[in-house]
Predict the 3D structure of the following.
Amino acid sequence: METEIIIPVEPSDDPLSIYRAQVAAEKVAKPDVMSDKTAERLRQINYEDRVRKQDEEKFAYALTQVTPTAENLTKLIARCVGNSRPKDLTQLDRRTHKLLFWIQGRGYRLGYEIRLPGDITFLSELTSDEIVISDTAFFATWHVKKIVSPISDEPEARLCALKRKCLKAVKGKAAPVAGKSEYCSVPCRGRARVIAQNAAKTAASSLMAA
């Protein structure tokens, strides 16, 4: 009678090694290869996406060259709305006024906050009520009370730490500073030092008097 010889197996450091081997074997048996048709479709989608983004950038840049007058905005609305929904191209004067409100009353800029044909269509679109109300009611609703400066991407300028005491202040507003300095100029820095010294002397005198 033959004796079965059992060879001891050293325990693996990776308890999941057997499962990893099974996954690897399955990948060999069924390689994850994209079909030619799927690959071609993916390339087409990527190409169309690049073309769309290029067209959007060109349109946005063209908008930056447009002066936002009522006449120019009317032409823009006619172009954008007319291309997508010709039958909605009504009451252009109201649509123009509404778009002008967002530019003058909210500081929106052509080519930036308003950069796509859809933006122009959306911001000038009239609600069902706005279509039927009187001119007086409509223009009162979209009346620009105060013209707002265009929105800026630039960070707000830092002003001299002396504020109203700034030597370059104009109408009580301190001058802007450059770099990391707290003061707009050397004279202002010197003046700040003098003010600090005088404040220290006043504080010391008050303590002595007490």
Observations:
- DSSP finds eight helices and no strands in the chain.
- The mean pLDDT is 83.
- The longest helix spans residues 36-64.
- Residues 163-203 form one domain.
